[in-house]
Amino acid sequence: MLDSSTARLRSRHVVVAPGMCSGGSLLFGRIGDWTWDTVADACRMKVHSARTPDGDPAYLSFYYFRVRGGRTIHPHGLTFGDELRVSSRAFQLGSRSVMTLHRLAPADLELDDVPLDPVEVYERRHPDCLYAENFNRWIARTSASSNKSLAQVCPADFAYADLPRLPNKYSPRALVGRARTADSFHPAGPPGFVEADPPFTVEYTLDVVRDLNGAGLMYFASYFSIFDTALLRLWRSLGRTDEQFLRRKVTDQEIGYFGNADPGAVFTIAVRRWRSTKRPGTEIADMAMHEADTGRLIAVTGVEIETGP
Amino acid sequence: MLDSSTARLRSRHVVVAPGMCSGGSLLFGRIGDWTWDTVADACRMKVHSARTPDGDPAYLSFYYFRVRGGRTIHPHGLTFGDELRVSSRAFQLGSRSVMTLHRLAPADLELDDVPLDPVEVYERRHPDCLYAENFNRWIARTSASSNKSLAQVCPADFAYADLPRLPNKYSPRALVGRARTADSFHPAGPPGFVEADPPFTVEYTLDVVRDLNGAGLMYFASYFSIFDTALLRLWRSLGRTDEQFLRRKVTDQEIGYFGNADPGAVFTIAVRRWRSTKRPGTEIADMAMHEADTGRLIAVTGVEIETGP
User: How far apart are CA A246 and CA B207, in angstroms?
Assistant: First the structure.
C-alpha cells in the first residue's frame, strides 16, 4: 500500500501482518510493492499507473530479484507481530531500468538512521538483517492479447537522472546476462559444493487462480512459489517431509526473469542440487524454467538453503 | 502493513499495488490485514502478537468473510494504480470475537467523511463500492503439533467494551451457524435460481508452498484460492475457458471457516451450481470442503458470479 503521508520516509516501522509472511511468496510480493513505492517516491512519478509515450500501460517489471536472509530475519522465518525497520533506496541503472535496495532489520537493532549504503548491502551486511536487491525494467505488451512478447519501454515521466548512481562494480547486469545465456546462475557448479543428485525435471502448468497479477501477467512473486513447488517435489523424491521443507532457511536466493506466459502454458523445470563440502546441511539448488512447447526460457533461480534438522 | 503514523485514520487513500490485486486472493488477504489493523487501533492492543492468558499465541482468526462487489470496485477487477478510499470500522460482537466492516470506494467518489455506518453496509450499499464483512474470533492451538484442534480464547488485553455495537439484526452468527449445520449457505437453493448441473466433486491436496500462513496455519485467503480452483475445474468440465474464468465478476462471496488442517491433508470439495432464472449470466456456486479421511467440515462458501461474455 502506498500511503501518501508515509511514502517519503526513507525507513519505516513495519509490524508483520498475515499478508506479508508465510512459507510462500507473500514477503517477496511485499518487498516488490516497497520497490514500486520507493521508485514512485524517488522519481516523483505515478509508477503504478505509468504509461508509454503512446499511452499504453507500462510496467516496472522485475528482471532480477535477489534476497539474502540473515540470522534473525530470513524469508520464511517471519511471523505475525514481528517488528521491522525497513530501509529502502532506489539507484540509477540506465535510462529504462532502476535498482532498488532494501534492508529489513529487527526493529530493536541499533542502526544509524542514514540512507541505505550499497557498500553495506554488497560488502558489509549485518548478520541479523535481510537484504533485497530488485533490478526492474520498464516493459509494455507489444500485443494486447499475449504475454509472450513484451518490449522494453520508457515512460516519459521516468525522472531517473536525480537518483544516486549504483557503483558499477555492484551492477547485476553482467551476472544476469550470464545466467540468461547459461540457463543457470551456477553453470560450473558453486565453488565448495558437490552435485548431490542426477538432474531432476518437474512439469508445471500455469495456475490461472494463483499465478497472474492484476494486469493479467504472470506475477513475479509467483515465480518463487513455482520454483518452490519444483524444489518440494525434488525433496519428496529424496524422502524428505513437508515439515522439513517448511523448516528450511533460505540464506540467498536470486531469480532472473526472462519471459512471461499466457494461461494454459506448461513449463518444464530442471532442478540441480549441490551439497556444501564444508557446511553440513547447506545446499544450493539451481533451477531453470522453460516453456515446454516452445523451449522459451522463462526464468532461472539459484537458492542457498540451510536444511536444518 | 500497519504503519503507526496512519493506523488511527478511519479512512485512507490507497493506490492499488501488485501485491493487493489479482485474479486470485491477494485482495482478500489485504482486506484481512486491514481488519487486524482496524481492531488493533480500535482496541488499542497489539493484535498481531496477542497472547492467551497462559502466554501462548492467540490469533484473531477469520470465522466468516463476506465481500460484495460493486459496479466499479469488485474483487478481481482491480489493477495497478487504481485509487481507493478505504473506510474501516470495528464493532462489538461478544467477548471473544469482533466484526469489522470495510468499504472500498473509488477515490474520486464524493462521500461524506463520517465513520462507516452498518446501515449503509447492510441496507444502502453504494452501487460503485465494494463492501467487506469480517467476523473474527480469537483462537489458539490446543496442541503445538497440530492445526486440527483450535479453541476459542480471549486475550486479557482485548478491550472490546468501548467498540460500537453492531445492531443485532445484522449479526451473522445465525446464518453462519446454519451454514455450518447444513454444509451450505443455500441448502434449499437460492430463490430465483435453478440448479444447473449434477453435483460435482473435486479433490484437493493442501499446498504446503502456498496455503500456510506465517503461523503455520492454513491461511484464510488461501481458502478463496482453493474454492476458486474447484470452481475452475467445474467450469472447464462445462467447456468454459481459462479466459472466461478470469473475466468473471464476483458480486457476492461468503466463506464460513470451520476447520484448519495439517500438511498432507486431502480435501473433498463438493460444488453445486445454480443459474438465475431472471438474470442471464448470473450464477451462484455453493461449495463445501471436508477433510477426506476424517469427514471434518473445513469450510463452506457461496459465491454469486456474473459470468460475462
Answer: 11
